[in-house]
Amino acid sequence: VDAVLSRKFGIPGICRTRIVFAAEVGKNKKEIYLCDFDGGSITKLTNNNTLSIEPSWHPSGRAILYNQFLVSSTPLVEYDLVNNRSRALVRQNGLNSGRISPDGKKIAFVVSVGNQMDLYVRDVEGGNLKRLTRDRAVEASPAWSPDSRELCYVSNVNGRPRLYIINAAGGSPRRVPGVLGSESVSPAWSKDNKIAYAARLGTYTLKVLDLSSVMNYAGPKGESALIADSSAPAVEGESPSWAPDNRHVVLSSRGTIYVVDTRTNRKRVLISGKSKCNGANWSPILY
């Protein structure tokens, strides 16, 4: 199917993609798991006996990152899927939520120091640490642009959590216009410049914003430009992550993980059971 989609329509398929997620295994304990795009072949990746959360993919598809909560620190851990080895990629005190840029060169993360939570960028292997925000606001959930030059993140600098975009080299942030809800959180940036996020509309609800229509970014082409009508039935959930086809997203709601078609707003259950699952992240490549 992937080959047909690529040859006939020039779009990437998703049948050979994988998804990582965190699952509850005990009180204050979560481990990282891997599955196929249809929820099959579930594999447990970690046995940390602690809280391991927010997994994300290295752009090569050969490793994943996640936050591990230890007694005295919360390192950002890189797990090598090829050699089954782990290492602490970032160890800064107060660390949370890190993401590697699509070109594999930079890593963005949020650090809490005192009452401040600010956004930082540095080289993946260390060095060139740059602080991008410096305020009393809470920053969270950095998401890289497809060209690795900018970051979309959440900040409550103006009172409520909203989406902002800032250059990874530094500069003034720009608020993303057109977002819905009393809060807008957990952004994900597609390769064709759409932002999927969770809007607070009573409950957190999936919404998609085309940056070409509100901030003059290069627009999606062909079918990927279509986004579900806002009047369509809302899909409840948080922390969306794009599939390589720039059409489907995976997200979690009440401990269940769903796949949503952003053109139709139709959803299907990916993972559901006794264990609460969340933080799903879609692989950037085919296997």
Mind explaining what this structure looks like?
The chain is mainly β. Helix content is 4%, strand content 48%. The chain has 2 helices and 23 strands. The protein has helices at 2-9, 211-214; strands spanning 18-26, 29-36, 43-44, 51-57, 63-69, 76-80, 85-90, 95-100, 106-113, 116-123, 130-131, 139-144, 150-155, 162-167, 174-175, 184-189, 194-201, 203-210, 238-242, 248-253, 256-261, 266-271, 277-282. The strands form 6 sheets. The chain has a 4-stranded antiparallel beta sheet, with no helix packed on it. The mean pLDDT is 92.
Query: Overall mean pLDDT score?
Result: 92
Q: Which residue ranges are poorly predicted, with pLDDT under 50 across at least 5 consecutive positions?
A: none
How many strand segments? 23
How would the global form be characterised?
globular
Q: What's the N-to-C terminus distance?
A: 13 Å
Strand content: over 45%
Number of helices: 2
Strand arrangement within the widest β-sheet reads 3-2-1-23
Fraction in helix: under 10%
Instruction: Report the structural category.
Output: mainly beta
The gyration radius over C-alpha positions equals: 18 Å
How is the main sheet built?
A: 4 strands, antiparallel
Q: What is the multimeric organization of the chains shown? A: single chain
Sequence of secondary-structure elements: HEEEEEEEEEEEEEEEEEEHEEEEE
